[in-house]
Amino acid sequence: MAGHWTKISSISAVTVSPKRHRVNLYSRFHSNKNIRAPQVVSFLKQLLKHLRGPVMLFWDGGRPHHAALTHRFLKENPRLKTERFPAYAPELNPDEFVWNYLKRGIANSAPKDLAHLRRLISGPLGRLKRSQKLLRGCLKASELSWP
């Protein structure tokens, strides 16, 4: 079908605990769907279930981050504070390095379908989530100063 693309969209967060400085990666994938405000809000709800205390979000200027639904959710959840990365500054965002790692992990693959692509991603994603060294590497690769 012309113009019909299949894809996986993703949303993720790299977290650093303020006391132990433990790094974690949270992610969610959506088949054949762009990430919009409802997916952002759903992801943030799940994130709040896993994290205690105040949460500082650093994110880009994507449309879902500016949507009324997202703003309402942020207002209703004062634990969440946001800070926007400057425009066109992917080098500041550790998540960019997460996705670079995952793309390298499946490079030269030819997935047959979305289910196969999900299986291909699961290996590198699991390794990344389990490795403090790899996750810290994503933080250090960004040009922000981290603990």
Q: Main traits of this protein?
A:
147 residues, alpha+beta, two-stranded antiparallel ribbon, 6 helices, globular
**How many strands, what sense, and barrel or not for the largest sheet?**
2 strands, antiparallel
Instruction: Determine Rg (CA atoms, Å).
Output: 16 Å
Q: Might you state the CATH topology name? A: Nucleotidyltransferase, domain 5
CATH homologous superfamily title: Ribonuclease H-like superfamily/Ribonuclease H
Mean pLDDT: 89
Distance between the termini: 49 Å
- Provide the succession of SSEs: EEHEHHEHHH
Give me the count of strands. 4
- Summed up, the domain count is 1
Overall form: globular
Can you tell me the CATH architecture?
2-Layer Sandwich
The percent range for helix content is 40-55%
Poorly predicted ranges: none
- Text of the CATH class: Alpha Beta
SS class: alpha+beta
Strand content: 15-25%
Number of helices: 6
* Order of adjacent strands in the largest pleated sheet: 1-2
List the helices and strands and how they pair.
Blueprint (H helix, E strand, L loop, with lengths): L7 E9 L6 E9 L5 H14 L4 E5 L3 H4 L1 H9 L3 E5 L9 H12 L8 H17 L1 H10 L6
Parallel strand pairs: 3-4
Antiparallel strand pairs: 1-2
